[in-house]
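Deliverable D4.2, example record:
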Amino acid sequence: MKFHHSDNAPKAIGPYCQAIEVDGWIYLSGQTGIDPQTGKLAEGGFEAQARQVLANLREVLSAAGCTFADVVKSAVFITDFANFPILNKLYGEAMGDHRPARTTVQVAGLPLGAAVEIDVVVRRGLQG
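Output generated by the structure prediction step:
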């Protein structure tokens, strides 16, 4: 197992790592909208938090030598499906033309009162 870490993404708030790699598969822990500079949720509501989530994922992916184009599967957790259109817009911008498998569920709550959390599974070298 190989561990991946970025100082440009929030530190883990529990006993887990940002990402772990096994046999070319990389599993990123869920990222919320925590600003790594302040340690607090991004201010500005759902959109600001969603942008920060994607920025945090991008940083951890980069630390592992990957991009969103290497994502095979994502899981999205939101606290209010009314924000689904905003999520889709920002997620689509981050993924570009790439369309990995995705699950999106509404949940009752997330750590620190976050509005959205996303985790991804990546296959190294997917885009050859």
